[in-house]
Task: structure prediction
Amino acid sequence: MPSRRAASLTLGLGLSILAAGCSLFRAAPAPAPIAITSTTTQSGDVTVTTLSNGITLLHKSNPSNAIVAVRVLSRWGAVNDPDEKIGRARLMMRLLEKGTSHRDADEISDTLEGLGASVNTSDNYDTVGASLRCVRADLKRAFEVFSDVLLNPTFPIEEIDAEKQRVLAEIRMRDDRTPLATMKRFRSALFAPHPYGRPLEGEPETVMKLGQIDLAEAHEAAMTPENLIVAVVGDISAEDAHELIEEHFGHLPRGATSRTEARKSFAPRATREEFSRDVEQGFVVLGHTTGPATDPDSASLDVATAILGQGMSSRLFTELRDKRSLAYMVGASTAEYQHGGMFLSYIGTSPETVDAAEEGLWEQVRLLRAEPVAEDELERAKNYLAGGYLREHETNAGQARYLAYWQFLGLGPEADDQYTARIRAVTSRDVMRVANKYFTDPTVVILRPLASARGAEIPAM
Result:
C-alpha cells in the first residue's frame, strides 16, 4: 500500500492542503533486504507457498509455451464498501493504471505495449484482482510495471474525474437497457439489504462523491498482504516465481486484515415486482437464493441450471424460443459468492406475450422439480459444463485465474482438478433434489412495456 509500501500515502492531510494542489503521495526508498521465512507445500503439480508476510503464492509449471500468466487476487471486494460509497471498489481498480508514484499513465501503457504484455483488472463482490500476461523473456520488466501499478497508484484527481464520467455513462446505459435494468432490480429484490443486492458500478450519487482518499483507503485494505493470493502459471520454475514475488511483494508489512464481510443477511422470500417503461420489449427474471460457492450442492445446481437454460439444446431455448417463439433472449444462470448465491432464469419477449413468457419459465422450473431428467439430457448438460471448464484451462491465464479462485474459497488447488469429476458424478436424483430444495419462494421482477402495463397474477408453482 502507498502508506506502508514503496509509495507512502499520508491520509491525515487536511482539505486545505488538497485544495492547494499538494500531492497525497511521496516516494519512499526501496526497502532493505529482509530475512525470508516461508512455508511451502505441494498439491499435485501446484506448489503452494505462504510468504513470511502472509501472501499466498501458487505456482504451476507449463514449459510447453513461452507465456507466463500471473493472477493477483485480493480477499476484499465491493461488499466492504459502505452503502454511501458503492462503486468505490470498481472505480479504484479501474484507476490503478492511470498513474503511479514512478510512472504516469502513458508510460505504463507504452511500456506494456512495447513488451507485448497485457494487464487487466477486475472487481466483484467478494474480491478484486489483476492479471499479467507476457512472454517469459520479458517477465522481469513487465512485472516491475505490474507490481508498481498494484502497489503504488496515485489516483490523480484529473483521472478520477474522467473515470467517473465514464462510469456514469455506463450506469446510464445500464438503466436504459431492458435486460440490465431488470437484472439490477432483480438482484436488489433478491438480496437486499445485503451488499450483494447493490450494483457493482454504483449509483450516480455515490460515484460522484468518491474522492482520492476514499480510493486510497480502499486500495490499502485490498492490498494488505494477508489478503493477497498470487498464482503464477507458465514457463517458470517454482524457485524463480518465489524469488519474483518476494522481490516485489515480500517487503509489504503485515497489516490489519480487512476481508469480505457479511454485515447484513438475506433469506429466501417470495417477492414480486413489476415496473413499466416506454420500451419495445418486455423482460422477466425469476430466481432464488442458493448456498455459497463452497456448498456441496454447487455441482448439482450447475447441472440443473445447464439443463434448464444454458446452450442451444437447453429446455428454455428449445421450448420457449424454438417451439413457441416467445423469446428473443432466454436462459438461466447461477452466481456463487462467499456468503451465498443465486439461481435465475430470464426471458425477453414481446409486449403481448409477457404473461405467457413468465408462465413458460415457471412451467420449465416445475418440470425440473417434478420429473427425473433423462440420461441423455443429463449427459449433454454435464458435457457442456465440463467441456467449457476445460476450454477455460487451455491458457495459462485461465489456469492461474482458477487456481487463485479456489484458493480464495479455501478449497485449495485440488478443487480445480475435482470440479469436472464432481460434475460427472451428478445424477438425475441430485438434479431433482436441488431443484426442490432451492427453486421455491421465488423472487420475480418483470419489466412490462408501458403500453401493455397491467396487473398480473403470479402463476402457481
Q: What stands out?
A: Residues 276 and 299 are 36 Å apart (CA to CA).
